[in-house]
Amino acid sequence: xxxxxxxxxxxxxxxxxxxxxxxxxxxxxxxxxxxxxxxxxxxxxxxxxxxxxxxxxxxxxxxxxxxxxxxxxxx
Length: 75
What we know:
By secondary structure, this protein is mainly α. The protein has helices at about 1-30, 35-75.
């Protein structure tokens, strides 16, 4: 059990390092672009972010609705 917890902690601590690399690459790329290309890059980022955010929002709304319905039924 202790070994699994240790492995989990190590993996969690390593993930921000991997996520931070993409940010610096995008920043360097965006600095060398003109306005039209920079707007295209921003649009692409928003396009890629839409689906995960929509899924999280849907799950959150369903959870909130069901949690609210269950709390009114138990009182």
